[in-house]
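Sample 3 of the quickstart, ligand zinc ion:
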Amino acid sequence: MPVNRRQFLASSSLAAAASAIDLRALFAMAPQAAQAPPQTAFVAVRGSIGYFTGQGGTIGWHVDKKSVVVIDSQFPATAKICLDGINERSLSHPLDYLVNTHHHGDHTAGNVVFKPVAKKILAHVNVPKLQLEAAAAAAAARNAKPGAPPPPPPEQVVANTTYEKTWREDVGSEVMALKYYGPAHTSGDSVVTFEKANVVHMGDLVFNRRHPFIDRPGGASIANWIKALEATVADHRKDTIYIFGHANTPSQVTGAGADLLYQRDYLSALLDFVRGEMKAGKTRDVVGKITDPLKGFPDHGPLIERVLTAAYDELSA
Ligand SMILES: [Zn+2]
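Result:
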């Protein structure tokens, strides 16, 4: 049907009005757009195992017909997105286990979201205490700031099932094994192995191609972290796929034993470098301000105070 002039004018003014509304709507949405939900992704790895990235440490998952396990929980907002995706894949099967690889907030703050659907929350025996201590210290630090009223402390949901050295159990058609290799990134890091899929969640024992966080108040040890990485590689097969708590790029979230040994080499080089600077008589303050890349590890970018002072303190302890 041909469009007459009146209809054309009517429709074009409608279009103009509509686009004005669109523009106003767009402007109104701009502040929310700035707080848009974080980018999230579900990625299958092998067998029944996969990972989820959002905000904070990488979440691992195991979903088969009889069992669901989630490793780490990020923060509440992305934990909710993760749980919704897990429920789609599992037809809302409850979780046999939520595992916490260690106590840090970017791996445990989302526990509160998973708790109602998780039969057990599992972690190394040191984790609940470390988590409560860290939350109390963070609350005290906030209260120490003059002026602003302190925000309420976030609810801490801690593991209700713990182990000391090793733990192993069938989960549906998989076998899940946890092992504690001693103090490393914290003093409660678990390596979580899904034996049949031959996939391992490393928690924060690997910051793949990024400067790591070394939690000395949480009992970290760079020297033993190096040994833990070697022992983990020795305990697993050549074709094991590892999931890393943090990575420089999305394509580096998983890797091989060689990436664990690269992390080991970085930590060794960091200790060697700081030891050399200390021998040269440099103070903690001076060492902490060095920003040259660590020799042999240019992909990590300039050195940062956090890792330099952690190494300095460990070496002078
Ligand atoms: Zn961590």
